[in-house]
Amino acid sequence: MSTLKPIEKRGFEDLFDMASGYVLDFTNASFAQTIQDVANVDIYHDKYSFNGNSKANRLRAFWEIEADEIVGKVLNEMLDAWEYEHASDTKNLRYNKCREVTARLTGVPSSKVDTAAEFLERKIELPDLAKLNLDSVVTGILEARIKEIEKGLNSKASLSVIFMCGSVLEGVLLGTALQKPQSFNQSQASPKDKTGKVRPLNEWSLAQLIDVARDINAIKLDVQKFSHALRDFRNYIHPYQQMSSGFSPNEQTAEICFQVLKAALADLADSR
């Protein structure tokens, strides 16, 4: 059971517009997938239905049942989603109070993580992909995709840029995991089956690759945070999910996604 206080719950309720029964603009599918990826929890399990079946009620049940760390991680993910929709409003008092709460729950000081605007302003150079020591054929493919990303930014093909950034990020993280199987498999964050055995690397989701990369210090905390946001955007490759959420990418979203990719590549190159 989390230690969320009533006034803290009210802050999240208001910020996420939960009085409507919804949680932000999550669909049933994206809501379930987000929590599954972040916490390995099936939010549509019967045990989360005692308040009712709406997304808001299931989230309320979730934070009543689960421990601080797992609740904090999920709420942080949802704050990331809120932030990307309100990038110019990150001085919002309620938002910042909610970040302080998730920092308490997870034990990670909120001051260590940049806002989206601050992250975008950072000067990050693309590293030489050869420094990652991936398979040479894979490296060639990734380099070609990065060139496509740059072309997409120049032609303002925002949606294509987002999907391609997610693709490259997943390819690089999986390639790194295959190069360092012992480190990734021994991480406490590694995904496990019902018997407690670590799943094969090629079955890991992008969310799991991101979290394990952070756990073994291959990427920094802010890169982990924004990589999850990129992953969320990448999921809109499914047209019906994009339609139901009303997601409409713009140039800033595409630029942030490329910035995330560059930061992840730089961290991974430095960790070699």
Task: Give a quick set of tags describing it.
272 residues; mainly alpha; 13 helices; globular
Write a brief caption for the model.
The chain has 272 residues and is mainly alpha-helical.
Distance between the termini: 39 Å
Largest sheet: none
Instruction: Name the poorly predicted regions.
Output: none
**Backbone structural class:** mainly alpha
Order of helices and strands: HHHHHHHHHHHHH
Number of helices: 13
Strand content: under 5%
Based on CA atoms alone, the radius of gyration comes out at 18 Å
Mean pLDDT: 89
- The geometry reads as globular
What is the strand tally? 0
Q: What portion of residues is helical?
A: 55-70%
Structural features, described:
With 272 residues, the protein is mainly α. Helix content is 62%, strand content 0%. It has 13 helices and no strands. The protein has helices at residues 6-15, 28-39, 55-65, 68-85, 93-106, 116-121, 136-154, 158-179, 181-186, 206-215, 221-234, 239-245, 251-270. The model has no long low-confidence stretch (mean pLDDT 89).
